[in-house]
TrEMBL record:
Domain HTH lysR-type: 1-58
Protein name stated in the entry: LysR family transcriptional regulator
A Pfam family hit: HTH_1
Protein keywords: DNA-binding, Transcription, Transcription regulation
């Protein structure tokens, strides 16, 4: 049963006249008559009765009008809600660093505009983030990596992230303005998990430059890494965005590492065949409106 039949029925009931209803709907009168007949056949009742030139609803017609009004109202409501994508779920796959230290302030603003969209953050390392997007498990992803080149994925570079060596305030690095690679020789490192992109880049550089180092701890939590650094258990290479609070409280010190040939970028990624909803487009606007590095 076509929903238009109910809308046509409402129009005929409003005007009590097939001709007038057809004019307002832009239909031929025969089309209006056919639609009403189909409704009557479907329900097995007569909806209108004639008395001379006058026409009025039957008892069945009056009941039908109540339902037709509800159907029409729900139809219009569904068009408004679904068309604006005001409800539903938005799944974002991202690394823990971005989930904890970058996204929250943007998600706060997003919720003010789309309060009925449920945002689900799926924590994962970079390769898993990309896999989730390729397989349609996540709507979009946030990466911290070198610029992505993938035939299936669209990548929008949001900003360049500053990577810093973080150390206890009593560490000799606290007196330096920057760190050269050779100065890392013999240092104890507190590192993220093995599949972390910037850990992999650090270890490759140390190996290429033949710089000896010690792996003191391997931790999956950025907070745990910072606590270990605070208590002097080693140094770490991490994004500066993750220690802004500690720097403000003067709990840790940071020094830039000369990494001219190795830059990491916060990137928004989605599948090239992904249908972009209004809520997704709005989040992209938020994330890209002020692409300034920390």
């Amino acid at each position: 049963m076509d929903i238009q039949h109910f809308l046509t029925f409402r129009e005929v009931a409003k005007w009590q006249n097939f001709t007038k209803a057809a004019e307002n709907l832009g239909y031929a009168q025969s089309s209006v008559t056919t639609q009403i007949q189909k409704l009557e056949q479907e329900y097995g009742v007569i909806l209108f009765e004639r008395f001379g030139r006058k026409m009025r609803l039957t008892q069945s017609g009056e009941q039908m009008l109540l339902y037709a009004n509800q159907i029409a109202d729900l139809f219009q409501e569904s068009k408004a809600v679904i068309g604006r994508q005001e409800c539903g779920t938005l799944c974002i796959s991202t690394i823990e660093t971005m989930a904890a230290f970058y996204l929250p302030k943007y998600l706060h603003r997003f919720r003010q505009v789309f309060p009925h969209i449920q945002v689900m953050l799926e924590p994962a390392q970079e390769e898993r983030v990309k896999q989730s997007i390729r397989e349609g498990e996540a709507d979009m992803g946030i990466l911290l990596d070198v610029p992505l080149s993938d035939p299936e994925l669209t990548s929008i570079i949001i900003r360049k992230e500053e990577m810093v060596v973080v150390a206890n305030k009593s560490h000799p690095f606290a007196l330096l303005e920057k760190v050269e690679w050779k100065q890392l020789s013999g240092e104890s490192f507190i590192m993220t998990e093995q599949d972390c992109t910037y850990r992999g880049a650090l270890e490759r550089e140390l190996k290429t430059r033949q710089i000896p180092y010690r792996l003191a701890f391997e931790l999956g939590s950025m907070e745990a890494i910072k606590q270990c650094v605070y208590y002097g258990l080693g140094i770490a290479l991490i994004p500066k965005i993750t220690i802004l609070s500690e720097l403000e409280k003067e709990m840790l010190c940071t020094v830039p590492l000369c990494m001219e040939d190795l830059s990491f970028y916060t990137q928004l990624v989605y599948h090239k065949r992904k249908y972009m909803t209004p809520s997704m487009n709005y989040l992209i606007e938020l994330l890209t409106e002020s692409p300034q590095a920390v």
